[in-house]
Amino acid sequence: MSPAELLDLANGRTAAARGIPYTLSTMATTSIERMARAVQGPLWFQLYVLKDFEFNRQLVRRAEETGYSTLVVTVDLQAGGKREKDLRNGISIPLRPSPHHFWEGLAHPGWSLRLLRGGLPQFENIGGYLGDTSAGLTIAARVGANLHAGFDWDDFRRIRDWWKGRLLVKGVLHAGDAACLVAAGADGIWVSNHGGRQLDGAISSVDALPAVRHALGSEVPILIDSGIRTGMDVIKAGASGASAAAIGRAALFRRRGRRGRRGEGPRYHLGRDGDWPQALRAAQF
Ligand SMILES: Cc1cc2nc3c(=O)[nH]c(=O)nc-3n(C[C@H](O)[C@H](O)[C@H](O)COP(=O)(O)O)c2cc1C
After folding, report:
1. From the CB of 170, is ligand 1 less than 6 Å away?
2. Which end of the chain is more exposed for a tag (fewer CB within 10 A), N or C?
3. Is the CB of 23 inside a 6 Å radius of any atom of ligand 1?
């Protein structure tokens, strides 16, 4: 199993042990089915809408059949952004090995050994997409070229019809969009700018949040992510109108090398930060 897949599973188990829902991506390095077998806890499935609606349908059906409780439809990556950091760091799809990667490998021998032992990550949910069975990163390139840039309201309603459970839309920053999505059947809105990874000129999600809350009223669940790093950030999100906060990279940053290798997963410290009591007092919770 690749180190990336071990990490995916460890994150899922760690979240489940704390009763936190784990969202498995279309592009995850573990499959919908394997994650469902490994985790006894709430699981959500995140869908990237591809041009091939029969394939989208299959992904949604697999999540339904394996007991995922919530479908998260991401709408802020229908076309790839120009990720300048990735360009600078030589992260391309497919990966083109360079002297930089070689030196990084030498500087991190433990990581390199695990990679050699476990192999490159595979994007398990989309293996065979469009008949492509080549290496994972090449498949990812293929999927990237097949994101449905023309995704529209009829497409959204189609997906809404497929999924009978709770459906959230992720990647919303505009209050008007949020209101239209709820009117079209979304059960909740996930305010996000994709961790700032997608569009360099996007508004921050915490700045977008109050207007979205105002447009939706107090009952509709609103999640927020992008930049949540501490308990204080969670409090600020709550005070700005979020029902819950989600983390992406914090789960990876907190991972301890040795513990992670034994599959114990990352440690979540968000609830233990020293800044919580002070922030709670300040916010008068
Ligand atoms: C390595 C990486 C991969 C990601 N892959 C996906 C993905 O497949 N689907 C998705 O909806 N968001 C994806 N995201 C965005 C996260 O879901 C989330 O919106 C973002 O990481 C939140 O910001 P934070 O990392 O500052 O917490 C990814 C983020 C990172 C860092």
Report:
1. yes
2. C
3. no
